[in-house]
Structure formats: C-alpha cells, structure tokens
Write a structure and sequence with these properties.
single chain, 130 residues, mainly beta, four-stranded antiparallel beta sheet, 1 helix, 7 strands, 42% strand
C-alpha cells in the first residue's frame, strides 16, 4: 500500500527527549515523527521528517532520529509512513530511547520482616550446630 498504520507511543509522564533508528528508508518512502503536548489530541510541538533523499538512508540502512526539547512537554509520539510508489511497506524500528528514567521502586513493607525471619532461622540453625 501507500501508507502504513500510525505507530503511537504515549507517555503517562512527559519527557523532553526521545530517539531511535528507523531502518530501510528507500524507494519513495517517507516517515514523519511528530511530538505532541498531550496524550490525546494536543498540539504538535516538534516534527522530524525523513525521506529516501535524507542523509544516511537507503536499503537496509539505519537512520537515526531524535527529538529534544528544553522542557518535559512531550506526552505522545506519532510515527507516520507513506510511499509514493505502490508496494510493500517495510519499517524497522530499533534502539528506541523513550527519554524517561524509570521511577525508583520503594522497598516493599514486608521485605524487612522476611529478612528478619530468615536471620532468626539462621541463628537458630547455627545455635543447634554448636
């Protein structure tokens, strides 16, 4: 066909940076990566356009892309691909960096209790050996 399904990445927490590689841009293929300031709807705040005449594109070639903002205001990325020549639409997507640092997971409340219990068992076992 002439168009691919839109790939949508949404964030529950805004980011200011995202990057990755799109593979195999050739033969009249174009890709547009658009950043939006809301998870649904919102305004387009940054766009990257890549076509077969862009640098570092071609059959089997990995083309780097990135969106970098001064503040964390990106809530959604949309990847749209189109062809000017009918045929199969191939998209390879690799090395995606969402720009989001994983949240610190708090220590579960029961973990100290479990460790205390295991320590008590170790002491009892050691005491029985002596």
């Amino acid at each position: 066909g002439l168009a691919a399904e839109t790939l949508i990445v949404t964030y529950s927490q805004a980011t200011q940076f995202a990057s990755g590689e799109i593979l195999d841009i050739d033969f009249g293929e174009t890709f547009t990566i658009t950043a939006f300031d809301a998870a649904i709807g919102g305004n387009a705040i940054a766009t990257v356009f890549i076509d077969a005449s862009s640098p570092d594109t071609g059959n089997g070639v990995a083309t780097n892309w990135s969106i970098s903002r001064g503040i964390a205001d990106v809530y959604r990325l949309e990847f749209d691909g189109e062809r000017t020549i009918a045929g199969f639409f191939g998209l390879g997507f690799d090395n995606f960096d969402s720009g989001v640092t994983p949240a610190v997971v708090p220590l579960p409340g029961g973990l100290p209790l479990i460790l205390t219990g295991l320590g008590a068992f170790a002491l009892i076992r050691r005491r029985n050996r002596v």
